[in-house]
């Protein structure tokens, strides 16, 4: 396989990953559920700055369709709904941790502290 | 630091990283330049499926402002312009490689081959 073909495959693979994780919010939503293991809708809304109720519902549905998260409804009064990562969703943990490390360094670089 | 405060910091750090890398295209553009070390505008346009000329110009400018890439103009006939990652941009290589690995597994999971 030539270098060029190899590079094209790598770039396409990154593109495939971003197709699933696209949009401004998905990675932040996954990180919220990832760090807490299990998270309610209202908690995620609070964790992910600036996201609207409607947008969070849409993004959570897409993540469910892509089998990255699972929604559990508990028969409590009132009903409780929480989300957690599937086995497959947990394979993103490495990427999430890398992004967090990079984000911390980026903030230091920008703010100088 | 309580668990909760620690989680909030991690989630904010992921959010910070995604603020810089946001949008559908930036990570794919960075991966194109990253794998080839140095890339011309027309090459990137070719590598990143579906991106328009106008969108690529805008995204490249934002990446330059964030000091992740640098633009070099060569005095050839016609003039050649190429992009490469800065030292700072190269700190994203780990994340790019992780995304490529994840993307390959995702494609296998979806297509079964």
UniProtKB/TrEMBL annotation, chains A, B:
<dbReference type="GO" id="GO:0003677">
    <property type="term" value="F:DNA binding"/>
</dbReference>
<keyword id="KW-0805">Transcription regulation</keyword>
<keyword id="KW-0238">DNA-binding</keyword>
<protein>
    <submittedName>
        <fullName>Transcriptional regulator</fullName>
    </submittedName>
</protein>
<dbReference type="Pfam" id="PF01638">
    <property type="entry name" value="HxlR"/>
</dbReference>
<dbReference type="InterPro" id="IPR036388">
    <property type="entry name" value="WH-like_DNA-bd_sf"/>
</dbReference>
<dbReference type="InterPro" id="IPR036390">
    <property type="entry name" value="WH_DNA-bd_sf"/>
</dbReference>
<dbReference type="InterPro" id="IPR002577">
    <property type="entry name" value="HTH_HxlR"/>
</dbReference>
<keyword id="KW-0804">Transcription</keyword>
<feature type="domain" description="HTH hxlR-type">
    <location>
        <begin position="6"/>
        <end position="111"/>
    </location>
</feature>
């Amino acid at each position: 396989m030539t270098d060029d073909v190899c590079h094209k495959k790598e770039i396409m693979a990154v593109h495939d990953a971003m197709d699933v994780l696209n949009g401004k919010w998905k990675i932040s939503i996954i990180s919220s559920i990832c760090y807490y293991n299990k998270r309610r809708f209202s908690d995620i809304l609070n964790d992910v700055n600036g996201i609207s109720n409607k947008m969070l519902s849409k993004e959570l549905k897409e993540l469910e369709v892509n089998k990255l998260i699972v929604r559990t409804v508990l028969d409590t009064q009132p009903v409780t709904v929480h989300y957690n990562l599937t086995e497959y969703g947990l394979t993103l943990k490495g990427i999430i941790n890398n992004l967090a490390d990079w984000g911390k360094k980026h903030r230091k670089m920008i703010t100088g502290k």
